[in-house]
Amino acid sequence: MKNKDIRPVLRYIEENYALDLSLNSLAEEFVISPFYLSRKFKAETGFTINQYIISCRMGEAERLLIFSDTPIKAIAISCGYESLSYFYTTFKRYTGCTPQEYQNKYRR
After folding, report:
1. Are 65 and 76 in contact (CB under 8 A)?
2. Are 38 and 49 in contact (CB under 8 A)?
């Protein structure tokens, strides 16, 4: 992956956000040093890998909260969160409200 863009990494994260992803697991997957991947990713996207993973997970959670009848716990699991309390904390930090508040506010 040296001297190439990080589009394959972006695509991999977007397709596998529900997995237990980390800088090290991605570096292993793409056979590259974690340090190089981290720097290249940040330089090309402006985000850290963790920020991007959370963004993908939260985007899917928002979509499911608005457009599905899936219970919040199932949404958390499908977005890669085993701990419901951690999902709530992350969601509130990301959107400014709890998943239930978000659902009530935006669901039609």
Report:
1. no
2. yes
